[in-house]
Design a protein that fits this description.
With 120 residues, the chain is of the alpha/beta class. Helix content is 28%, strand content 20%. A six-stranded mixed beta sheet has the order 2-1-3-4-5-6, sandwiched between helices.
Length: 120
């Protein structure tokens, strides 16, 4: 899966996801840190990348409706330490068929995964 990690996620997540076979870009490597959300979103869409973020500005399913983009994963952990973020994302990516999430709006918490798929 082609992934773009938002700046609010730990650097080690990029290398961890790459180790399990994903093509990962980070905002740090692309000099997009501090850029407006619209610019980050546009970059992800232009590259057909699945955006992973904790930014609640990306939480509106009307604005980011399934099927209108390459995919969006919103992480909502209660205590999002770097270690917890990396562990939870890796757990989900190893257990779920994440390639099926292209075009979906996904929310992950400590206990749940909610996948909103495009309407057919």
């Amino acid at each position: 899966m082609k992934i773009k990690l938002d700046e609010n996620l730990p650097h080690q997540l990029a290398s961890a996801l790459a180790k399990i076979g994903h093509d990962v870009h980070t905002l740090h490597h692309e000099s997009l840190v501090g850029r407006p959300d619209a610019e980050i979103w546009a970059a992800a869409q232009q590259e057909s990348r699945f955006l992973i973020t904790q930014d609640l500005d990306f939480s509106d399913t009307r604005k980011f409706s399934p099927g209108s983009h390459g995919g969006l994963l919103l992480l909502r952990l209660h205590n999002p330490s770097r270690a917890e973020l990396v562990a939870r994302v890796l757990e989900v990516f190893r257990q779920e068929s994440v390639d099926d999430w292209l075009g979906c709006f996904v929310v992950i918490t400590e206990r749940k995964i909610r996948v909103l798929k495009p309407r057919e």
